[in-house]
Every structure is written in structure tokens, then in C-alpha cells.
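User: Just a sanity check before I run the rest of the batch. Below are the C-alpha cells for the first item. I only need the designed sequence back.
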């Protein structure tokens, strides 16, 4: 797929990995729909950096935990050529200690909303399209503090391969599974450095590394149903 003038919706696109993805696609000539919820200032700043509305970019606010609002997001934007489900939340908690409300919140944002967006994207009248879901290296293993977060990402990984099979050849669906790229918000003093030191590559992938993987998947027309791990070999 030639990315020039393609319209790309990036959920959670204003900050962190989402920001890097938006920058990479804009540099490739795409037009960005930068989704945000609480990062309005950051979204407007990024929009300005990318050339603003004159360059064909826009920002869009949506609370993805409101599934009815998620249903309306893509129809409100018109035609979208590429959907990148990047937005997610992370609250580690063992299953036995996790309350129902917290589990539902993570599942809604990390799985149900992306699935809704995937289905709305597929319903568009387009000749070809591309979906990229941001997953997590945890999809390959189970860890003691994994609760609904890991379940939500594993469910999205399964939805990725299922949709790839069912929606081909018109729509390609792939995933990118980052490892320890950035510490979660509020967990800057986490054990991330220790985890990175234990990976085969012994260095953290960058947001730009994740963005490059997304560009590769979007541009390569023969790839669907694949999940690329950008984690320095951590999933091994």
C-alpha cells in the first residue's frame, strides 16, 4: 500500500507510542486522524507540528470505554484507509484481587472498543484497507500479576488473526506486540530496567521502533494475520 494521502486513524495518537506512529505515517505522506481522550493539549500540539488541518490532518476526541461513542467514531470521520488500534490502559492485578468494574474498564478499552472499530472499519465501502492492532509481548505467556489486561490483549490478538482470515483479501489485519518500551504512566519507578537487562538484546525498543513496524505492515500488501514482536526478544 502506498501511504501517500492515505487516511490513518490512530487511537491514543497524541502521546507516547501513538505519537511516534502518527509522526511516522505523516512523514510517509499519510493524513492523520489523531484520536485522544484526555490528551487534548498534546493532540493539538502534535497536529500543529504535523502541519495542521492545511496538511490534511485532524484531531478527534472519544472516550473509548463508552462503547456507543466508539461505534460512532469511524462513521463521524468518513472514509478511513488504515486503522491503528493503539489506545489502551494498563492496571496490573492478579485475577483473584481484581474487581469487576476494573476488569470491565480494561476489557472495554483494550478489547471491546478496538473490536468495534475493526468491525466499523470493515463495513466501509473501500477496495482495500489495513488494520494494525497494538498488542503486548504478554500474549505469549502468563505472569503472576496478569489479570484482565493480559486477557484483553490475548483476546485482541485472537481477533487479529480471525479477522485477517475472514476479511481477506480486501482488508489486511496484523498486530505489533511491544515489550518494555516506556514505563506505564504512574509507574515510572517500575522494574522496567531490570526486565530490559534480562532480555536477549539487553536494550529497550523505542516508540520509533514500534512505529517502523507499523509502517512495514501497512506498506507490505502480502502480509496479513501476522504479529511482530518489538521487544528485544523478551517474549522468548
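Assistant: Here's the designed sequence for the first item:
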Amino acid at each position: 500500500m502506498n501511504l501517500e494521502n492515505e487516511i490513518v486513524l490512530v487511537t491514543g495518537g497524541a502521546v507516547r507510542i501513538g505519537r511516534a506512529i502518527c509522526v511516522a505515517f505523516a512523514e510517509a505522506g499519510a493524513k492523520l486522524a489523531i484520536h485522544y481522550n484526555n490528551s487534548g493539549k498534546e493532540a493539538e500540539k502534535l497536529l500543529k507540528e504535523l502541519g495542521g488541518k492545511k496538511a490534511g490532518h485532524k484531531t478527534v476526541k472519544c472516550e473509548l470505554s463508552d462503547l456507543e461513542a466508539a461505534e460512532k467514531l469511524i462513521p463521524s470521520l468518513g472514509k478511513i484507509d488504515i486503522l491503528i488500534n493503539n489506545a489502551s490502559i494498563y492496571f496490573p492485578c492478579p485475577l483473584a484481587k481484581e474487581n469487576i468494574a476494573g476488569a470491565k474498564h480494561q476489557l472495554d478499552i483494550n478489547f471491546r472498543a478496538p473490536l468495534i472499530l475493526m468491525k466499523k472499519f470493515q463495513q466501509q465501502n473501500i477496495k482495500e484497507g489495513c488494520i494494525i492492532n497494538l498488542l503486548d509481548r504478554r500474549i505469549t505467556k502468563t505472569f503472576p500479576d496478569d489479570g484482565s489486561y493480559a486477557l484483553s490483549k490475548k483476546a485482541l490478538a485472537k481477533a487479529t488473526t480471525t479477522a485477517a482470515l475472514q476479511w481477506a483479501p480486501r482488508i489486511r489485519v496484523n498486530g505489533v506486540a511491544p515489550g518494555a518500551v516506556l514505563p506505564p504512566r504512574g509507574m515510572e519507578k517500575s522494574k522496567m530496567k531490570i526486565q530490559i537487562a534480562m532480555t536477549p538484546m539487553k536494550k529497550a525498543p523505542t516508540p520509533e521502533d514500534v512505529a517502523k513496524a507499523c509502517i512495514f505492515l501497512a506498506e507490505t500488501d502480502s502480509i496479513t494475520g501476522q504479529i511482530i514482536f518489538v521487544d528485544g526478544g523478551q517474549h522468548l
